[in-house]
């Protein structure tokens, strides 16, 4: 085997493997990530998507997080009790949702269901989340009170 062939082979294999990691079923995208928590009875903390921290503060805190394509496990803790919450619904993120986007927002609702939105600008609360907040306020529930 000539030097050129060996060099080409040694260069092509690692690059090919690296490319597969980004286009396969477990593709990872690094994005600005934040979360919105719509349950006024407590503050959520240690918010994680597949074991990776996600920013909080209802969209005011954004961190860069590795976001994997596919099925997600979403957890967060209750600031009053320390209770660990796990999303009740199955969240699946597709490449199409992430491709070309800069931000991912995780939305956590009072019934422990979650959804994501993606955008190129800082994320906003969802209409569903704002409706939950209004309902709680009309019932006299104040932020952080259980």
TrEMBL record:
It comes from the Bacteria. Keywords: Signal. Residues 1-23 form the signal peptide. The keyword Signal applies. This is DUF2846 domain-containing protein. It comes from Acinetobacter vivianii.
